[in-house]
Structures are given as C-alpha cells and as structure tokens.
Amino acid sequence: MPKIIITGGLGFIFSHVTEYFVKKGWNVVVIDNQSAGSHPEIINESFKYHNADMSKPEAVGIILRERPDYIVHAAANSDVDHSIKEPGKMILENVAMNVNVFEAARQLPDLKKVLYISTDEVYGECDHKMREDEALSPRNPYSSSKATGSLMRIAYENTYNMKGKTAEMRSSNVFGPRQDERKVLGALKAAIKNGNSIPLYNEGKGFREFIYVKNIPPAVELILEKGDGVYNVTLNEGFTISELIGMSEKVTDKKLETYPYNRPGMDMKYEIDSAKIRALGWKPIYTFEEGLKEYLTD
User: How far is Cα 115 from Cα 129, in angstroms, rounded to an integer?
Assistant: First the structure.
C-alpha cells in the first residue's frame, strides 16, 4: 500500500485524515510536535509517529529517510488571534514549515504528490465566491503566512520539474469532533456544555462558510489520486456568526450568552467556489445541518 506522510497529523482536522488512511490500509507516517490543539491520544501502533517540529531543519531529514509516496502538509500554527499578537513569530514558523516540506519534496524523485493544506483566508475579503485562479489578498498575519506556501508550491513546481506532483487544498471553516475552544464552533459547543459566555467578534456580522470535518478526508484522498493544482473545498453553506449562534441554540434548545469582542483587521466575509473539486468527483458526505446536529448533540 502507498506510504503517506501527514504533517500535523495529530491536529483537530488531520487527526481524522490520519485515521481515515489507516483504515484504508495505507502506510501512514505522522510528523507532529503536539502543539496546542493536538490529539496525542490517537497515537497507537497503527501508524508511525515522529514527535518533531516541522519548522526545524531536522524535519527535512525525517521526510527524506521515510521516502513517502505522498506528503500531506497540514502542520501550521493556525490561531489568528495569536498571529495578531505575535505576527513575526507565527509567520517565521509557518514559512519555515512550508520551506522544509517543499525542500524535502523536491529531493524525492519517486514522490507522487505533495498536497499543501491552505485556507480560504488567503483570498482576503470576498465580495463573491472566489475561484482558485483569482488573486490572493491575505489581510492578517496568519493568512499571509499560509499564502507563502501557495506561492512556494508554484515556485517549486516550476523550478524543480514537479509538474503534476503538487496540489493545494483551500477549505472553508472546518468544525467537528476534537475542535478546541479557540475556534467558533468549538467555543459554542463548550459554552453549551458549561454555560459560559463566548466572545461575539465584531458584532457577529462576520460571514463564514462551514464544513463538517468528516467531509475532509475523502476530499484529501481524491486530490492526492486525481488532483492537479488548487482546489477550494466547501459546502457553500455560509452564515454570519450571529446566525450560527441562533442555529446552535435551535439545535440544542439552549440559550447562549455572548460578550462583545473586536478583532483588529478582521475580514467580514469569506466565500469560495467549489465547482472545480466537485467536477473532479467530490461528493460531501454531510450537509452543514447534519454535521452541526451530530457535533453539538454528541
């Protein structure tokens, strides 16, 4: 079976991807330093685990020694509020992770594909559903650090004869089991359980699209096996945060308390076009409503 390296494979989203490929019978190798939001409880003998920081040069050697068929690069510091408080630190770490992955990938002649995991935030403020070929305009330190990986992918593909060996996934806001309280639906679930109040960013007017985490692993597999270039992954089901709170209250029959919070430089709307990956054959397993109900009532 194919060997796949998943960087950040203990994190909220990609711990699900790790388990998905294990169940598929793939030879799975995870590189993860167990930073905030990781789930070391999933570590077992079903996959090989390297406790390592992808931003350090040693990570290149780990990848080269493993000689994978596929690399999924999901490792990143993704806390937007942290990136606003310590922009230099986050940007340097995320850029270093990207460099190390692409440096390893270009030295693997038998590599079938490296998949870079990005975000819809690289498009910046959206006034329509953004397509993959539209310009990047990141507007906070986190999204700018992710956009560097998008540019590196193009540069390495062009310079090192890697055409057909690179791909990129930009998803909307992912939610589901194992999400921590730094993200909006993780905070909502905790508030429902504990009765605490949650911050209402910029009066709750921010619009985001949401996708249940169990829709992500099949999309990753499809891109690895058939994809080339960039793919937006979204259900195209979006809501303001105020609307999302109302929907969560309806699902759980519980009232949520909020307090005002202003995030500097916050983009008010992210919206992306998923036609390209749907044309590739992707069919979501869960609607937003189905995922929300399963997540909040579990």
Answer: 23
Distance of alpha carbon 101 from alpha carbon 98, whole angstroms: 5
Q: Encoding tokens for residue 52?
A: 């390592």
At residue 89 the predicted structure's pLDDT band, cuts being 50, 70 and 90, is very high
**Are 59 and 195 in the same domain?**
no
Identity of the amino acid at 160: Y
Are the CB atoms for 105 and 162 separated by under 8 Å?
Answer: yes
Whether the predicted model's global pTM rises above the 0.85 cut: yes
Is the domain of 123 the same as that of 245?
A: no
pLDDT in tens, 14-27: 999 999 999 999 99
The range of the structural domain enclosing residue 244 comes to 176-208+237-271+286-297
- Give the number of C-alpha atoms closer than 13 A to the C-alpha of residue 232, restricted to the C-beta side: 23
Q: Which residues contact 229 (CB under 8 A, 6 or more apart)?
A: 132, 167, 168
Strand-strand pairing, 166-171 and 113-119: parallel
